[in-house]
Write a structure and sequence with these properties.
There is one protein chain. This protein is an alpha+beta fold. The chain has 2 domains: 2-66 and 208-248, no CATH class; 71-204, no CATH class. The protein has 2 helices and 17 strands. It has a 4-stranded antiparallel β-sheet with strand order 6-5-12-15, with no helix packed on it. It has a 3-stranded antiparallel β-sheet with strand order 9-10-11, with no helix packed on it. α1 packs antiparallel against α2. The longest helix has 39 residues, at 210-248. The model has no long low-confidence stretch (mean pLDDT 87). Residues 200-244 form the Flagellar basal-body/hook protein C-terminal domain.
Length: 249
């Protein structure tokens, strides 16, 4: 009976953690470039003295859904949709590089190019990009940034830099608590994407299936309730067994 209680208890805990993952996905159904977080459970045998009868159900981070989200035309030249396998390089809060597919960019008052989360976009030399005063700007499919300086004519359009967009293997990316992805093997840095890497004037939407996530949340809730019932019945059975032992004693 003790074994059944232990398995049900750890299963209920894992179900609650999985619900947290699914609720996070639902909250980001409208976040551009968001990749659905995946959750799973697995059995883990508890080692120690005595008979090996304890099995822990543990929550496992199964990575993220690689599917490309739907495309939304915005007409804003600072909205970028990345090609499959390509990732925008930004400056991580603690320094160094991080990667995202959320490329709804904007300019700060001092001209720095940043993501919606406020992370500085890096150029191919790994420096934050600052845009000089301009009257028109264009971002090419290869990430090159061209501007017409303020007060000048179209003939003065010039390339001032190139956004660093890397070709990254999904298996080598890991999402951090800040929502940014990082290279799991820094000794093998990602390389700049060659050729067409993005489309300007459109955004990739979240790849979360809202209806499917809600169904998953209901299933996890029912699963949790079932595990709680097992704990409750197990406790009642234990009380009944103790009563019988006292009567026989």
């Amino acid at each position: 009976m003790d074994k059944a209680l232990y398995v049900a208890m750890t299963g209920a805990r894992a179900s609650l953690q999985a619900q947290g993952t699914v609720s996070h996905n639902i909250a980001n159904t409208d976040t551009p470039g968001f990749k659905e977080a995946l959750a799973n459970t697995e059995a883990f045998a508890i080692r120690g003295e005595g008979f090996a009868s304890r099995v822990d159900a543990i929550h496992v981070d199964a990575g993220f859904n690689r599917r490309v989200g739907a495309q939304h035309i915005t007409g804003n030249p600072l909205d970028l949709s990345l090609q499959a396998g390509s990732w925008l390089t930004v400056q991580a809060p603690g320094g160094g590089e991080a990667y995202t597919r959320g490329a709804a960019l904007s300019l700060t008052p001092n001209g720095q190019l940043v993501t919606a989360g406020g992370h500085a976009v890096l150029d191919e030399n790994e420096n934050p990009i600052a845009i000089p005063p301009h009257q028109a700007m264009e971002i090419g499919n290869d990430g090159t940034i061209s501007i017409i300086p303020l007060g000048e004519g179209p003939q003065t359009m010039a390339v001032i830099g190139r956004i660093k967009v890397v070709a990254a293997e999904d298996a080598r990316l890991e999402r951090g608590l800040d929502g940014l992805f990082r290279n799991t093997d820094p000794q093998q840095p990602f390389v700049q994407t060659q050729g067409k890497a993005l489309e300007s004037g459109q955004l990739e939407g979240s790849n979360v299936d809202a209806a499917g996530a809600l169904v998953q949340m209901i299933q996890l809730q029912r699963q949790y309730e079932m595990q709680v019932k097992v704990i409750k019945h197990g406790d009642e059975n234990a009380r009944s067994a103790n009563s019988l032992l006292r009567l026989n004693g």
